[in-house]
Amino acid sequence: MSDLAQLVATLGQQARAAARALAGTPPARIDAALRAMADELLAAEASILAANAADVAAARAAGQVPALVDRLTLDSKRLAACAAGLREVAALPHPVGQVLREWTQPNGLRFAKVRVPLGVIGFIYESRPNVTCDAAGLCLKSGNAVILRGGSEALRSNTAIAAALARGLAASGLPATSVQLVPVPDRETVRLLGEATGVIDLLIPRGGRGLIETVVRSARVPVIKHYDGICALYVDRAADLAMAENLALNGKCSRPGVCNAIETLLVHRDIAATALPRLGAALLERGVQLRVDEPARRALGDLAARRAGQVTAATPADYRTEFLDLILAVKVVDSTADAIAHIEANGSHHTDTIVTADAAAAEQFLAGVDSAVVLWNASTRFNDGFEFGFGAEIGISTDKLHARGPMGLEELTSYKYVVRGNGQTR
Amino acid sequence: MSDLAQLVATLGQQARAAARALAGTPPARIDAALRAMADELLAAEASILAANAADVAAARAAGQVPALVDRLTLDSKRLAACAAGLREVAALPHPVGQVLREWTQPNGLRFAKVRVPLGVIGFIYESRPNVTCDAAGLCLKSGNAVILRGGSEALRSNTAIAAALARGLAASGLPATSVQLVPVPDRETVRLLGEATGVIDLLIPRGGRGLIETVVRSARVPVIKHYDGICALYVDRAADLAMAENLALNGKCSRPGVCNAIETLLVHRDIAATALPRLGAALLERGVQLRVDEPARRALGDLAARRAGQVTAATPADYRTEFLDLILAVKVVDSTADAIAHIEANGSHHTDTIVTADAAAAEQFLAGVDSAVVLWNASTRFNDGFEFGFGAEIGISTDKLHARGPMGLEELTSYKYVVRGNGQTR
Known about the structure:
Number of helices of chain A: 15
CATH topology of the largest domain in chain A: Aldehyde Dehydrogenase, Chain A, domain 1
Oligomer: homodimer
Shape of chain A: globular
Largest interface: A-B, 67 and 66 residues
């Protein structure tokens, strides 16, 4: 066994032992530990920020792009937000122990379906060191041990944060190994975590497509993926155009770089001649580039000519691209059914919305689009665990198994059946 | 692309198209199709039994063991049971469309979590041709298309059955490709199904450990495993011995070859001297071989000596073995906590039961044993979808993600979130 394999095996054994201990820990003690972790995080501010400054300096020296450096950077305010996040998670209801269903069979057997922790969660992520706190808090609250494998660019920061969290755990009498950081963040450890059958109950990769594909390719343990969002806004012929404009601007411009941004604008042909000049003007004004089909170009009229640099012809690939930028693919469709067919063929089953005053068209869309979150007269930005009222979010699943859409605490649990009888046999 | 890869790709495309059609099919039409499939199965009895006779003859000629030949064999009665099973599934409530939860956020957004089909299910199984009907019925009822990959020894039978099912589908106006059989049942098709990301939403392998391990090793699509059951019966010091005897005999002898049979008997030391002679005599009488630790041998006393051929010393491996035979590993434990620790270290998290009149010991066991089904004063045989009242069972999951324990119709579904607003943005 290689040194790295030995390392991951040891982390795994420690995590399993911690998970056993956590399964029998009263909820109040878990909450106390979360608060102690918050305390230790604040107490260690100086060392965490110093470690982070070294990571940031190294990233700058390596010529990393400003967006990455920004994601990597911690300051007092961001660290305080991490601590506050742990306290908020402590205040949430406990998912474990909930009785999901109870029933009695004619033979007198009493059945209960009870929520239990998954056990050991592997969490693979990239540059944000605050994710170290967030993931640790959510996994612990749901009764799970977690092995965190952050990005190499954040190793110093993550190490300092994980040490503080471990002190909080130990101070509360919980195993410090409930939260462990993989100290060697290379690709090989990703592979080893994925092969740890019987040790890791769920592996969650969160990050760029390359990272997730690496995990999926090699993993033999269960994985819940967080792939991209190719989200569409469909403006039906019965749409309120002021609402459509608001939803388009919110969906594209508020944060173009995240997965619940819209990448495609579909417009019903009956309303294209009025909708597209209005929406187009508003989007172009905000600096959005439009990739349009020919009917959309005609509907845009003068605007397309005057803003020729911003309005270009769409290729088929544009409708299947997660731009994560101020770029929007635009298409005129013949009907709601046509919009649904386009989304099913080109979208990523993440988040799609219809704007319409026609309830029948809305229900057709809501039923026909097979995405994790489908909306009627609301922004795609609402695919978010906090907006759902989950109080927490570890990510947004693009899978259909176990968890779909925003993943909160409940999605980090499993269940078992408890059956009580008086000697029944078959 | 190889011919086989092309074949599996075509099956996959057809299944996805069928799944799209099924997602919009009214429940009553699905039930009508299930009944039509039952009709066609009975109408095709002569051809199905002829095909089956050819499979059975080939299996005999190949020197297959009698148990396999029996599993393979169909007759009028077994075929009628398949048809009746499809009608029973048609009569069950529909899982799809159920609203699992509804709530409204302070901003007025109305959320609904709605059950939807998974999409396309891949089902890999071995010699029983009746599983072809059962799996097809359950997948269709839950709105899914299914690709069935049965064993090579049952190919003629499965082909005849699948053809009848397809006629029933077509007669009901549903895509005949809602249920497809892989016509080339070699290992390569197992691998290809496991690699069909974006096509297969869930792969369920059911069969021997070798088959399941092959699937798990190569699959990149989500898999729910049906591994072995190393199930324990724990006789606490406060056990009713008549009840313990019944549960032991039921758990071991009624069907030793299936996964919910007990493989381990744990006895509290305070009751060993009375419990073990009684339980041991009853088990030995039924032809069960006992693999015992030294304290158990002492407790058995004379019996161990008189039945020396049936009572042998247990090795550590015996406590981690799924015998699937009239063999039982026996161990004396010091306490309920000791029983729990043994089960957690040696069992397979499948099904475990405690016999006791002591409610505190029972609750300690039910909380402490992390198995899919944990029972108090009831036989491990109750880990079964029908006994749970599910009305159907596609298997028993040994995973913790998505489905744990008996899998019925609900476990073949996912969900989506439907959000209704009036123009909300963030």
